[in-house]
Amino acid sequence: MKTLTLLLTGTVLSAGLAVAPAYSQGSTGDASPVEQVEGQPPAEGNEGVQAGEPVETQPANAPDQQPAFPEQTRAPQPADMPEVAVETLAEDLPQLWAMEFLPDGRMLVTTKEGAFHVISAEGEAGTALSGMIEVASAGQGGLLDVALAPDFETSNRIFFSFAEPRDDGNGTSVGRATLNLDDNGGGSVEDVEVIFQQMPSYDGDKHFGSRLVFSPDGDLYVTVGERSDDPPRDQAQDLDSGLGKVFRINPETGEAVDGNPFADEDGAQPEIWSYGHRNLQSAALDAEGRLWTVEHGPRGGDELNMPEAGLNYGWPVITYGVAYSGEQVEGGITSQEGMEQPVYYWDPVIGPSGMALYEGEEFPSWQDAFLIGGLVTTGLVVVHLDEAGEQVAFEERVPLDARIRDVRVGPDGAVYAVTEDPDADTSAILRLTREQ
């Protein structure tokens, strides 16, 4: 195993960990070699930032835009930051998208090409599980997120999101299956069925989202993208469209949960929880059981939100940042009556993917903080909320010199980060612990 210590107290140092190089085709929010890439090049020059100063020191893409309130962007670093040791637990894996811990400590991972694999606690990868249905893996598509059913220990059921090929294009869908594993790292997924489809379909290969999060009541939140292109991205504002939404569904039926905000509104899709989103690839519950998300913005304007029932989060009518061309998005406005402000935004972007609430003993200073994967910042972004749990008090960065696609907290309290190298179609899994 390769091990490296990152000294994060009082300054941010470059990791220099050669596990999966940052994708270098210009800008990289969620990239593949055949598409317009997102975000912008990894920022440099953040070294030497002192506690109490913002970790982001690079100029904004939209310098004339002003935050709606002081805590909305460029939060300071905390005074105390841990020393982090990083080891490569597994490498030379197929390109991964998500990871979930099984009760026995093994890891269930999804691959972009459309397969499930099981990784042992020692980092050994098993063969692809049989029985999986077809996925559309071009561009930003593939087999996306995976979540264990709340009753997994008795049911062995899993839920997954994926880019589904359809006669009239493709779209993000949610499937359900039973996991049947053997003792050799292999096995199968059985009784596979699609329980929910984002509609309408669209013949594109970008902005599928997607993350799956179970609520404390056992409902399933599903985040999706608005498919990027103009049109149809403006459908993020339409309640009769499933583009650019957070859904709340019943995992047993795939239908809307009773009490959803638009269940009784004529013409609206009843599964919608919130709308006006761009491309949601990070989602997690906080310590109080509330849903939080991070979505890819344009060039500048990645957003942290706490999506609430029935609210409109603005895309593409309002946004921070600018288009990839450098031009304004829509009218270049950042606020409008009836549309929500993000709790926090990043300009330059972080390229968010994967998100976990830290709960464990390994990193006491991270307790109840959000850990967010950075595709552009090539590391972890640690977001500390204030005492009220409503605004960002501190932000710190853990450089890993790799695009981070997903992040999970292990049963041992260590942090596990999934890297990706789109050029080589490979991934690694890193294990982060506190340097003693």
From TrEMBL:
<dbReference type="Pfam" id="PF07995">
    <property type="entry name" value="GSDH"/>
</dbReference>
<feature type="region of interest" description="Disordered">
    <location>
        <begin position="23"/>
        <end position="81"/>
    </location>
</feature>
<dbReference type="InterPro" id="IPR011042">
    <property type="entry name" value="6-blade_b-propeller_TolB-like"/>
</dbReference>
<dbReference type="InterPro" id="IPR012938">
    <property type="entry name" value="Glc/Sorbosone_DH"/>
</dbReference>
<feature type="domain" description="Glucose/Sorbosone dehydrogenase">
    <location>
        <begin position="95"/>
        <end position="424"/>
    </location>
</feature>
<protein>
    <submittedName>
        <fullName>Glucose/arabinose dehydrogenase</fullName>
    </submittedName>
</protein>
<dbReference type="InterPro" id="IPR011041">
    <property type="entry name" value="Quinoprot_gluc/sorb_DH_b-prop"/>
</dbReference>
<feature type="signal peptide">
    <location>
        <begin position="1"/>
        <end position="24"/>
    </location>
</feature>
<keyword id="KW-0732">Signal</keyword>
